[in-house]
């Protein structure tokens, strides 16, 4: 990006979200993160917020706008998993995951769009997953929530595209984070067999694709799903 922007990363206190916030800071942007607990990386403003609560999101944006200016780039990264086979999955296992991962992104994007429409500029990046398109046994809730982000981004593109606002989806595969570290060596080896690149990604590799999508270089890309998965899903 040629100019410093005000960036918000939801769930920026750990894992991929933390790396995304770090990368934007390194490029000289004004960066805020939302977190339910913990803090974002050095150089960021951490705001307590819960994406399942619209009032909490509104308050977070209001304090970020007062401190850093209107949000120009939003990365909807906050998400949860509650893996369970379909037959054992409760209604709340399903709705809680969808409410955080999909409805949470909707709330954040809706609030961000106010300032973006006024500025006639905006970059919206939704963090999906390779399983949003491939599916995954035991992840009916997570997979459904992540594929829903694609419809969200594409509809936002059609609504707001003429106002200098882009909305894109990034679909990471297996990333070296706390979550993959918990897998057994056997599980890790099994997953690696299905990845043409034969390795997991670093969080930085995902973050750098996001900073590029938010840059002026990607101004004519909108409604796209960009896989960062070493060839695991190949965008399908």
Automatic annotation (TrEMBL):
PANTHER family: 3-OXOACYL-(ACYL-CARRIER-PROTEIN) REDUCTASE (PTHR42879), 3-OXOACYL-[ACYL-CARRIER-PROTEIN] REDUCTASE FABG (PTHR42879:SF2). The lineage of its organism: Bacteria, Bacillati, Actinomycetota, Actinomycetes, Micrococcales. It comes from the Bacteria. InterPro entries: KR_dom, NAD(P)-bd_dom_sf, SDR, SDR_fam. It comes from Marisediminicola antarctica. Residues 5-173 form the Ketoreductase domain. GO terms for molecular function: oxidoreductase activity. This is Beta-ketoacyl-ACP reductase. Keywords: Oxidoreductase. Belongs to the short-chain dehydrogenases/reductases (SDR) family. The keyword Repeat does not apply. Signal peptide: none annotated.
């Amino acid at each position: 990006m040629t100019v410093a922007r005000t960036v918000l990363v939801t769930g920026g206190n750990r894992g991929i979200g933390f790396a995304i916030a770090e990368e934007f800071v390194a490029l000289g942007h004004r960066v805020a993160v939302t977190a339910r607990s913990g803090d974002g990386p050095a150089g960021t403003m951490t705001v307590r917020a819960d994406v399942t609560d619209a009032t909490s999101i509104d308050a977070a944006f209001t304090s970020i706008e007062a401190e850093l200016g209107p949000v120009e780039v939003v990365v909807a990264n906050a998400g949860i998993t509650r893996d369970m086979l379909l037959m054992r999955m409760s209604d709340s296992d399903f709705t809680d995951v969808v409410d955080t991962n999909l409805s949470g992104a909707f709330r954040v994007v809706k609030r961000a769009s106010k300032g973006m429409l006024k500025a006639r500029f905006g970059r919206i990046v939704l963090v999906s997953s390779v399983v949003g398109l491939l599916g995954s046994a035991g992840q009916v809730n997570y997979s459904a929530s992540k594929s829903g982000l694609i419809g969200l981004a594409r509809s936002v593109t059609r609504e707001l595209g003429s106002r200098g606002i882009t909305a894109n989806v990034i679909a990471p595969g297996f990333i070296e984070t706390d979550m993959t570290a918990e897998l057994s060596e056997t599980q890790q080896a099994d997953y690696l067999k299905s990845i043409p690149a034969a390795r997991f990604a670093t969080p930085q590799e995902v973050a750098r694709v996001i900073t590029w999508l938010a840059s002026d270089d990607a101004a004519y890309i909108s409604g796209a799903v960009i896989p960062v998965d070493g060839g695991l899903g190949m965008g399908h």
